[in-house]
Amino acid sequence: MIHIVFEPSGAEVLKKSITLDESLDGEILVIKDDFAAGPVANIYDAEGFQARKAWWQSVLEFSPYTDQLDIVDDKMTVHQLKKKLEETEENVWIWMGQNPHDVCGYYWLISQLADYQGKIQVIYLNNLPFINEIGGIFYPQYLHEIQPKEFLKAKRLARPVTLSEFELDPDEWRKICREDEMVRILEGGKKIASKDVSFFDKDILDALGEKTVKLPRLLSSLLPKMSIKTGDAFLVWRIRELVNAGRILCDGSWEKGWKDIALKDTKGELFVEMDEEISE
Fold this sequence. Notes:
Blueprint: E1 2-5, H1 8-18, E2 27-30, H2 46-60, H3 74-87, E3 92-97, H4 100-110, E4 120-125, E5 130-131, E6 137-138, H5 151-154, E7 159-160, H6 163-179, E8 183-186, E9 192-195, H7 201-208, E10 213-214, H8 215-225, H9 232-244, E11 248-251, E12 262-265, H10 274-279
Parallel strand pairs: 1-2, 1-3, 3-4
Antiparallel strand pairs: 4-7, 5-6, 8-9, 10-12, 11-12
């Protein structure tokens, strides 16, 4: 058995669940890219691949994640997966949480696995209740939110990817790629909607408020409140774009990292009291 997840944190929880149930034992592969953001036009061609790689390089610049450009290794991961499916009788279980990151990753992946129909199963935790650490019922969006022992319940949801899905899901992904917007959100089920690059701007500007704020503090207050989430690296890239456009004022050196950056909405007062506000 080969398990596929779309975030390292999901892989860690799955590893713990395997220690509780040997029937789940198998290799765990992680698709690292977040296909819910960034350019996806001609994603399987060299030109589209290089455009996406260049975009990720600009996103990760100055971030704490500059060593994580190995998301481009996803192509090799799929190549090796196909080879195993051709040479062995292994089955694949694709685990998806109800979020655009996982669903877009699924679309990108399943569009490359049509030759292996019958060997591919999917577990989509769509609107399903689970028990949290204090015994309450909740509806997880991400795999890492689920307790390892709850994965034993989730495994019963595994089902084969149907022939119809192998036909329709790649068509849906091709449509999304042709739209080539910079943001993709989940509207329910597996319905992905393409949105403009400015989609999260209101969240960013609302979180800035009236005072100057350090970038790490802004992110810590912004991310938990977002009803539709994206990665912090994407948000900071968008903040930099808003700075360049004059919509946000910025003080500090990006070369020194996120911790050195202070920001302010241009609707507020200018940086007259910058040093004093930062020290508060």
